[in-house]
Write a structure and sequence with these properties.
Layout (H helix, E strand, L loop, with lengths): L16 H4 L15 H12 L10 E7 L3 H9 L2 H7 L4 E8 L1 E2 L2 E2 L3 H18 L3 E5 L4 H7 L6 E10 L12 H5 L16
Antiparallel strand pairs: 1-2, 2-6, 3-4, 5-6
Length: 193
């Protein structure tokens, strides 16, 4: 992408730079290896996410491009996502542990979401780009990695070095330079007394 591309969010209140500058690309450098130190730091940030009762109901499958694990995950993605996510340096499957020793974890998906958010922010702070997706066959991933029924694959995150506009599939190129938008906060806050 050109260095002059401004993808910083225009916010209604000041927020941390790492949050306003973070965005989900579909243009990954398919030749750059994953920055192992940055990936490790992102996983560490996810590890230190808050969780109900400190259950830590998150699990990850980390698949570096070029490995059999990566190929299995790419195969589980819908075709649209395969086109842009496969070139990323790594794919990370985010898995919720929904119960342990017969005890249900009703907040498992919420806690997993916190881990994914912490991962994303840390990755961006260290120069990696991420894009989360849910367009994949969770059952195929569970079968491929022999996960028991308490472990629910919920999302996949593409992680890697940012590429150029030409690295994005044709259908995704306009989105790479489109303005970032969010609905106004007033439409999200239901009550504000």
């Amino acid at each position: 992408m050109p260095d002059t591309l401004d993808r910083v969010a225009v916010t209604d209140a000041p927020i941390l730079d790492v949050l306003s500058q973070r965005w989900s690309t579909r243009a990954y450098d398919s030749t750059a290896p994953i920055d192992e130190e940055a990936l490790r730091a992102a996983l560490e940030a996810a590890r230190w996410s808050p969780s109900a009762y400190n259950n830590q109901p998150w699990r990850f499958i980390v698949a570096r491009r070029g490995t059999e694990t990566h190929a299995k995950i790419v195969e589980s993605l819908i075709e649209f996502n395969q086109a842009w996510a496969a070139p990323a340096g790594a794919l990370v499957v985010f898995i919720a542990e929904t119960s342990r020793e017969g005890r249900e974890f009703p907040s498992a998906l919420y806690d997993l979401g916190q881990a994914a958010a912490h991962f994303t922010v840390q990755a961006h702070a260290n120069g990696l780009y991420t894009h989360q997706l849910t367009g994949f066959d969770a059952d195929a991933v569970a079968a491929a990695f022999e996960l028991d029924d308490t472990l629910r694959p919920f999302s996949v995150m593409a992680v890697g070095a940012h590429g150029t506009i030409d690295d994005a599939p044709e259908f995704a190129r306009d989105g790479e330079s489109a303005p970032r938008v969010r609905r106004p906060i007033a439409e999200s806050v239901l009550v504000d007394d």
